[in-house]
Structures are given as structure tokens and as C-alpha cells.
Design brief:
Domain AAA+ ATPase: 182-312
Subcellular location: Cytoplasm
Binding site for ATP: 193, 195-197
CATH class of the largest domain: Alpha Beta
Bound molecules: adenosine-5'-diphosphate, magnesium ion
Pfam family, one: Bac_DnaA
Oligomer: single chain
CATH architecture of the largest domain: 3-Layer(aba) Sandwich
Largest sheet: 5 strands, parallel
Structural class: alpha/beta
Distance between the termini: 64 Å
Keywords: ATP-binding, Cytoplasm, DNA replication, DNA-binding, Lipid-binding, Nucleotide-binding
CATH superfamily of the largest domain: P-loop containing nucleotide triphosphate hydrolases
Strand content: 5-15%
Helix content: 55-70%
């Protein structure tokens, strides 16, 4: 038994190939040869018919490569290049094959597939090897055209876990175990640069090692659309459908992108349903909750909400510091000899609150700059080198500003925002302000609670959830919140 790591170039799954001894060796009798010839003739006829049944493309990719090894005792047995290939043909074309065999006068009860020898020593198996190549080109097409390259450093090991992302991390870990599907889809959402893509790649990396038998496909929603449009143009929509329905784990990043793009949404919805029906895991990310994505069809929205919806909260100080410390280790190896004064990391973690990408960029710039000018990294250097980043993070939105804008918008008194009144006309705007504070600042729930008249963090959480729920059901409220967000961002 020889193990190959899948088809070369396909990064996601691997297949074990069992080498069969050459069957043509030794003295087969005449009888054997004759029955072989009969078998091949039958198969030749059947193949002709199958072209009509499954179409030229499917035929070339999946049927032509099959080698009929025997046809007896009610079983048609084929050699296939890989396990995946066999599974695919079995799932999609076994009935067609049986049907046509019956028409040709060789009915069978079962069609089975064994992984044959695909090596230079077995000339008989060459067509299969060629077919594997064809299929690979097609599958690679998905990987290549969609640019589904995985970033090497986006692993679980490199992901720093803190309060704001622990739930998302735990859910991603669960999916990465590759066990039975417990929630579908996993919907990860959060602002830019908070680690959504990192977590999705980490799932793919993990599965690639622990479950090489699974076909994991990661791509952005934009790439999904691109593929779809291309398939439409090339009239290969059936191939497109088949390819996407053949994956075991589908991950689509930044799904908000397809909002408003009707036919892509439609296709996505069908792909999504087909995979869920087959109990295949789906992981989706977006920059906001399903209910907040505008121009997303209602049925898609509600399906997206069926699984586990988890958000990546804005980072808090501890998480930012943790990430910086992890990165520091990395850079210290890269830039040996550079020193860093105490307090620099703490300063950065305190001041750069926008997102992790900016934080990482800042640290990288510091190291590059320091090594260029040959200086120690201290607070002076930070001021010099990062003045633009520091300036932009000074314009940080405060909870007070949010409360003021929301009060203005709903025509309630600012004092009522933090006061105890429970009247709905006041409580609802207050909850909107809570929601926006959670979304738009890096304050933690207890901190927000303190600024809402010393309310408990569970009250804030309840308020945030309430608004999330209401926005999904109430377009007017969703519009209000979007408008307020824009006003506050400007
Ligand atoms: P998103 O997809 O949510 O916009 P990314 O996953 O691209 O964000 O993350 C942006 C950058 O921040 C990446 O370089 C990623 O490695 C890094 N990052 C985000 N969160 C973490 C974390 N918890 N630990 C380590 N790095 C992180
Ligand atoms: Mg991303």
C-alpha cells in the first residue's frame, strides 16, 4: 500500500491509493480473454449511450476514465483513479450506468468502484491517470480561478484567544474537528480585521491535516460570484453546480458581498441548501449579522440564521496586548539585535483600537523603521513613526457621542438615555444606543453598562440582542440603525 497526498496541486484533500498487482500477467486462458472482450464490447456500447445521458463534459471527466474490470454475478466493477473519483461517480452516475447496462442486455444489481493502479508500471491504467488529470484540472480550476489560497500563518496556533473572540474561536475549533455536523451553518461576523478570515483559514488548515479525506473549499463570496458568472458565460452551469455540491466543507468569506446580486444569491441559496441537505458543513463570514445585511433575500437570511451565529467583538485591551506579544516574538526572531523599551506594547494596545490589522501593521512598521535607522524602539520612535495611525485613532467615537446622536434622532432627552425610565419610547432608543456602543466602540459590556447609568452588563447584552432581533424583523428599525451608524462614522 502506497499513500499519495491526493492529486498534486490540490491542497485540500488526500487519497490513499491501493496499488493493485498487474492483472495482465500470468497465463489467462482463452476463455478468460473472450469474456473480457465481451465485457469491453458491452461497456463500449454503454459508454456511447451514457454520453447522451450525462452530457459531453461529465462524460469526459467522469465516465471515460472508468475501466470496467469485470461484469459478473450481478456486479459491474470499475477501476477508478482515486477514492474521491469513485465516490463521486457512485453518487452521481451509478444509476445511469446501471440503467444503460440493463438496456444493453447486461443488467446488474450493483456498481462498485475500486481504486486501481495509477502508475507507470501499469500501462492498462493510463487512461484513468489521464482522467484523474482532467478532473484535477477542473477541481484545481475551482481552487485557482477562485484564488482560494490559504494564508500559511492563519492557523489556530497563531490565533490569540481573548474574551472578544473566544466564542468564535471555540466554534471554529469545533468545526475543525471534522466530526458530525452540529450546527449549520457556522456564521461568523464582525468588523474588519477582527480575525474572521484568519479563523476560516485555520479551519481549512486543521482539516487538511486531520481529515484529508474531506474536500474543503474556501473562497470569498466575490470569488463565488466570479465562478458563477464564468460558468454562465461558458454554459457550464451544471459543472459548476456539481463541483460545488461535491464539497464536504464549504467556507464562503464576506458573504455580504452577494447582497443585491440576485442571480448569484439565488445560486448560492441552492448550493447552500443542497449541502445542508447532505449534512455538509458550511461556514460563512460577513461583516455584520445576517439580519443586518441589506438586500439579502429573506429566505437566505433566515437560513443563515438557522445555524450558529457568532460575532467577533471589537478587541479589548488584553486581547490587543496578547496579539502584540505574540507578534513581538515573531519579529524579535526576524530582526535580531533590535531592542524595545518597556511600555511600548502597552502604549500601542491602549492607543490603537481600530482593528488587529492596523495593530499588526503598526508593529511591523516600527520594526522596519527601527532596523533602518538603527534605533531602539521606544515611545519617541513610536510617535515619530506612527503619528498618522495615532492621529486617526484619536478620533475615537465615544459612548457619549452615540447617546447624544441617538437621543437627537429619536427626540428623547439625553438624560433619559442613562435614566431609569422603562417606557418603550425611551427604552428602545436606549437599546439602540447600547447596540451602537457595542458595535462601534471597543468598550466592553461592563464599561458600556457603567456609561448607561451603572447598568449591569447583562442588561446591555439583552439590549444589544433585542436590537439585533428587531432589526431582522423590522426594516424601519434596521434603516434607522444604519442611518445612525453612518452619521456617527462621518
Ligand atoms: P477579517 O477577515 O475579520 O477582516 P482577518 O482574519 O483578515 O480579519 O484578520 C486581520 C489580521 O489580524 C490578520 O493578519 C490576522 O492574522 C490578524 N488577527 C486577527 N485576529 C487575531 C487574533 N485573535 N490573533 C492573532 N492575529 C489576529
Ligand atoms: Mg476577511
Amino acid at each position: 500500500m502506497r499513500c499519495r497526498q491526493g492529486w498534486p496541486g490540490n491542497r485540500v484533500y488526500g487519497v490513499c491509493v491501493r496499488n493493485k498487482p498487474d492483472r495482465e500477467t500470468g497465463g489467462d486462458g482463452h476463455k478468460n480473454n473472450r469474456s473480457k472482450r465481451m465485457t469491453n464490447e458491452t461497456w463500449g456500447q454503454v459508454r456511447e449511450e451514457l454520453i447522451k445521458r450525462v452530457g459531453k463534459n461529465n462524460y469526459t471527466t467522469w465516465i471515460e476514465p472508468l475501466r470496467l474490470s469485470h461484469l459478473k454475478n450481478g456486479v459491474a466493477s470499475f477501476e477508478v483513479p482515486t477514492t474521491f473519483f469513485g465516490d463521486w461517480v457512485s453518487r452521481n452516475f451509478a444509476d445511469h450506468i446501471r440503467g444503460e447496462l440493463a438496456v444493453a442486455g447486461s443488467p446488474v444489481e450493483r456498481v462498485e468502484f475500486t481504486v486501481g493502479a495509477v502508475s507507470d508500471r501499469a500501462p492498462a491504467a493510463r487512461p484513468a491517470a489521464r482522467a484523474a488529470k482532467t478532473a484535477r484540472a477542473r477541481l484545481d480550476g475551482v481552487d485557482e480561478v477562485t484564488g482560494a489560497q490559504l494564508e500559511q500563518r492563519f492557523t489556530f496556533d497563531n490565533f490569540v484567544v481573548g474574551k472578544p473572540n473566544e466564542l468564535a474561536h471555540a466554534a471554529a475549533r469545533r468545526v475543525a474537528e471534522g466530526g458530525p455536523v452540529t450546527f449549520n451553518p457556522l456564521f461568523l461576523y464582525g468588523g474588519v480585521g477582527l480575525g474572521k478570515t484568519h479563523l476560516m483559514h485555520a479551519i481549512a488548515h486543521e482539516l487538511k491535516f486531520s481529515r484529508p479525506d474531506l474536500h474543503v473549499l474556501y473562497l470569498s463570496a466575490e470569488q463565488f460570484m466570479y465562478r458563477f458568472v464564468q460558468a454562465l458565460r461558458d454554459r457550464q452551469i451544471m459543472d459548476f453546480k456539481e463541483l460545488f455540491r461535491s464539497v464536504d466543507v464549504l467556507m464562503v468569506d464576506d458573504v455580504q458581498f452577494i447582497a443585491g446580486k440576485d442571480s448569484t444569491q439565488e445560486e448560492f441559496f441552492h448550493t447552500f441548501n443542497a449541502l445542508v441537505d447532505q449534512n455538509k458543513q458550511i461556514v460563512i463570514s460577513a461583516d455584520r449579522a445576517p439580519g443586518e445585511i441589506k438586500d439579502l433575500e429573506e429566505r437566505i437570511r433566515s437560513r443563515l440564521q438557522c445555524g450558529l451565529v457568532v460575532d467577533l467583538h471589537p478587541t479589548d485591551y488584553e486581547l490587543r496586548l496578547g496579539i502584540l506579544q505574540a507578534k513581538l516574538e515573531h519579529y524579535s526572531n526576524q530582526y535580531r539585535g533590535l531592542t524595545m523599551a518597556p511600555g511600548v506594547l502597552e502604549f500601542l494596545a491602549h492607543r490603537i483600537t481600530t482593528n488587529v490589522r492596523v495593530l499588526e501593521g503598526a508593529l511591523m512598521r516600527l520594526f522596519a523603521f527601527a532596523s533602518l535607522v538603527g534605533r531602539e524602539i521606544n515611545l519617541d520612535l513610536v510617535q515619530e513613526c506612527l503619528s498618522d495611525i495615532l492621529r486617526s485613532s484619536e478620533k475615537r467615537l465615544t459612548i457619549e457621542e452615540i447617546q447624544r446622536k441617538v437621543a437627537e434622532h429619536y427626540n428623547v432627552r439625553l438624560s433619559d438615555m442613562i435614566g431609569p425610565k422603562r417606557l418603550r419610547t425611551i427604552a428602545r432608543p436606549r437599546q439602540v444606543a447600547m447596540y451602537l456602543s457595542k458595535q462601534m466602540t471597543s468598550r466592553s459590556l461592563p464599561e458600556i453598562g457603567r456609561r448607561f447609568g451603572g447598568r449591569d452588563h447583562t442588561t446591555i447584552m439583552h439590549g444589544v440582542r433585542k436590537i439585533e432581533e428587531l432589526m431582522a424583523a423590522d426594516g424601519q428599525l434596521a434603516d434607522d440603525v444604519q442611518l445612525l451608524k453612518r452619521l456617527l462614522q462621518s
